[in-house]
């Protein structure tokens, strides 16, 4: 693969990873307007975010075997086209119930992008390069929350919340064209790969029997739950309690995302001196130590806007180290059934994220303390799973 072709391939894979975060983050600033337009509350609107996570989690389990059976690009085309159709449907939603259902269906199409991108990293590049490539994908993944809420804030203010979903349709259409023109096929279709339910379950059983997968998939997913907790809580806290405008909230979101971008790129430098296993362990320890600081501040009501923003920045930025390394480690054992492994990895990450967002949506969180407790519980449990899982599976 030439340098130019390699660059275009990684770029398209990065854009595919941006489909889900743009779908999540771009409409966050529109929550208050959506609530007003659909005669509901912001917390009910947050359930449309939860339904999207549920759809992503469930859809990925289906796409994994399909990608292994039919190759990577054909299911990817179908998923992206399906996404565009349902995104247009979201723009015409007339009730919160309709929007919640359509967001679930929209996610079924969106998850094709994330599963295919993860699997194709394993298909197209040596395992030794995977952590660095996942760091680049994390760059795009982290840049998305910088751009999406800011764009969404202005789009909502100028054209109304429905225009957000029209804009998403246009964006995904451009990515679809890039996939068609520049993305290699990756692993070819395997006609011997059965889609029989028993065969599919056996494929997933093979994945979960790998200690590396179980340890790093679950610990990273629980850590990733910190980000979902923040995403679901932040509109109510910052636009409700701190009275930020839609545009101001977008800039705040961009600032937090900048921490993840910085971490993911520093990770590339650290990989020259440390292994992925070492980086993940040390980052988890740091995050938990800072979590204690964050919880102490919330308990004693040190809730000045800039102090809260700085603490959230320091607590969430380590996820930029965790995700590329943990994803590479979880996918390391797989070459033949990378699609199923990528799907299960995504299912675990999004499944736990959907649980967090549903819980927060029902609580209608508008103060720092409940969110902070959720963040600290996620980071603490992630460290326990990492250390306990390594010991159980005898992983160094």
Give a written overview of the molecule:
- The protein is globular, with a radius of gyration of 20 Å.
- The protein is built from 15 helices and no strands.
- Helix 1 packs antiparallel against helix 5, helix 3 packs antiparallel against helix 14 and helix 4 packs antiparallel against helix 7.
- The model has no long low-confidence stretch (mean pLDDT 83).
- The longest helix is centred in the middle third of the chain and has 31 residues.
- It has a single domain, classed as Up-down Bundle (Growth Hormone, Chain: A).
- 83% of the residues lie in helices and 0% in strands.
- With 396 residues, the protein is mainly alpha-helical.
Order of helices and strands: HHHHHHHHHHHHHHH
Assembly annotation: single chain
Instruction: Return the CATH topology.
Output: Growth Hormone, Chain: A
Which architecture name does CATH use?
Up-down Bundle
Question: Helix share of residues?
Answer: over 70%
- Structural category: mainly alpha
Chain-averaged pLDDT: 83
What is the makeup of the main sheet?
Answer: none
């Amino acid at each position: 693969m030439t340098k130019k072709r390699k660059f275009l391939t990684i770029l398209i894979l990065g854009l595919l990873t941006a489909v889900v975060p743009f779908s999540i983050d771009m409409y966050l600033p529109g929550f208050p307007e959506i609530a007003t337009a659909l005669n509901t509350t912001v917390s009910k609107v947050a359930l449309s975010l939860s339904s999207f996570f549920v759809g992503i989690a469930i859809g990925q389990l289906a796409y994994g075997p399909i990608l292994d059976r039919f190759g990577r690009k054909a299911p990817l085309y179908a998923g992206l086209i399906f996404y565009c159709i349902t995104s247009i449907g979201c723009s015409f939603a007339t009730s919160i119930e309709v929007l919640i259902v359509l967001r679930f269906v929209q996610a079924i199409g969106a998850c094709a992008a994330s599963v295919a991108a993860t699997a194709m990293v394993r298909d197209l590049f040596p395992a030794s390069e995977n952590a660095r490539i996942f760091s680049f994908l994390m760059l795009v993944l982290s840049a998305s929350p910088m751009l999406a809420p800011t764009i969404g804030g202005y789009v909502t203010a100028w054209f109304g919340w429905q225009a957000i979903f029209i804009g998403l349709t246009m964006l995904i259409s451009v990515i679809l064209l890039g996939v068609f023109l520049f993305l290699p096929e990756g692993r070819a279709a395997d006609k011997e790969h059965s889609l029989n339910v028993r065969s599919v379950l056996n494929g997933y059983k093979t994945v979960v029997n790998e200690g590396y997968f179980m340890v790093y998939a679950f610990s990273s997913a629980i850590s990733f739950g910190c980000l979902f907790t923040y995403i679901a809580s932040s509109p109510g806290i910052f636009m409700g309690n701190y009275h930020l405008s839609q545009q101001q909230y977008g800039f705040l979101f961009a600032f937090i995302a900048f921490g993840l971008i910085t971490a993911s790129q520093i990770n590339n430098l650290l990989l020259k001196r440390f292994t992925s296993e070492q980086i993940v362990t040390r980052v988890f320890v740091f995050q938990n130590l800072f979590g204690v600081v964050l919880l102490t501040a919330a308990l004693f009501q040190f809730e000045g806007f800039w102090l809260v923003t700085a603490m959230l920045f320091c607590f969430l930025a380590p996820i930029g180290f965790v995700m590329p390394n943990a994803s590479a480690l979880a996918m390391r054992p797989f070459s033949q059934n990378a699609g199923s492994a990528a799907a299960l990895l995504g299912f675990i990450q999004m499944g736990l994220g959907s649980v967090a967002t549903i819980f927060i949506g029902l609580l209608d969180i508008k103060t720092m303390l409940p969110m902070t407790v959720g963040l600290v519980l996620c980071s603490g449990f992630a460290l326990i799973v990492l250390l306990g899982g390594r010991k159980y599976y005898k992983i160094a």
